[in-house]
UniProtKB/TrEMBL annotation:
Domain of life: Eukaryota
Name of the protein described by the UniProt record: Reverse transcriptase zinc-binding domain-containing protein
Domain Reverse transcriptase zinc-binding: from-to ranges: 80-164
Length: 271
């Protein structure tokens, strides 16, 4: 059993220096003949330590040493938890208003990751590169007319706008034209669970594919028209919805063909 952590908690960072007890010392190392082996000085830390320590425990050499993990939140549980260790080392931030648009059970993980970076405005768009002092051309690679920025790519750019708007063919589904509004819209716009899930998947797929097309033009000089990007997103979403329908069918065998993700998709988003 370690005495060091207790010493630091009780006496602070100066405890080991004043008492001469190593911060890594075990309890057994500070006990001799059944008594605590403590300094006799009058320093307040020494006085505090002598007053605070309980009677010396009986040390058994027959018992093997083990590591006991301490949870600073829940106390000495003795059980190691990687998640609790992470929480102890990293303070939790306040979730952004877009959190439910980025993280939800049906996500396509690589799409959610790109969306998360975009939501935090961390994509290396050309306006940001120029703000860092890099000598780069600022014009959007997709339209060759306006300054490239997150707001422009999603979805003020004619290319991104064409891709995003192409999925909203139903007159009752009116999508917001800009990135910030779209993030909040997919969370609250519709009470129908399947419609809400599909709009979230669509937003993330569109962000991912528009950004990928931008990178393809920058790094490989390869260009695809918006119509091809739209077809690729349609195929991608259909595959994802098919998997979701299979999972629903495994859970609820009474699900009808008119009450599926794919039927909702073809009824509201693709004709």
């Amino acid at each position: 059993m370690g005495l060091g952590p207790y010493l630091l908690d009780l006496c602070g960072a100066n405890g080991p220096r004043v008492t001469g007890i190593s911060r890594f010392a075990s309890v057994a190392a500070v006990i001799r003949n059944g008594e605590w082996r403590l300094p006799r000085g009058r320093h307040s830390i020494n006085v505090l330590l002598r007053a605070a320590l309980p009677p010396a425990p009986v040390i058994s050499s027959m018992t093997p040493n083990v590591f006991a993990w301490r949870d600073p939140v829940k106390g000495d549980s003795g059980v190691f938890s990687s998640s609790q260790t992470w929480l102890a080392l990293h303070s939790l931030g306040v979730p952004g208003p877009w959190a439910d648009a980025v993280w939800f059970p049906q996500i396509i993980h690589k799409h959610a990751f790109i969306h998360w970076i975009a939501a935090r405005d961390r994509l290396p768009t050309r306006d940001r590169l120029r703000s860092w002092g890099l000598d780069v051309h600022g014009v959007c690679l997709l339209c060759n007319s306006s300054m490239e920025s997150r707001a422009h790519l999603f979805f003020l750019c004619p290319f991104g706008q064409e891709v995003w708007n192409s999925f909203f063919v139903h007159s009752l589904i009116i999508n917001p034209p800009d990135f910030e509004s779209a993030q909040l819209w997919v969370i609250t716009a519709y009470s129908d669970r399947k419609v809400r899930v599909i709009t979230k998947l669509l937003l993330q797929a569109t962000i991912n594919e528009v950004w990928r097309e931008r990178n393809s033009r920058l790094h490989r000089a390869m260009t695809k028209p918006a119509a091809q990007v739209i077809r690729e997103i349609q195929a991608l979403i259909q595959r994802k919805l098919y998997v979701l329908d299979m999972k629903d069918r495994d859970v609820n065998s009474s699900t009808t063909s008119n009450d599926t993700y794919l039927s909702t998709w073809f009824g509201c988003f693709q004709r």
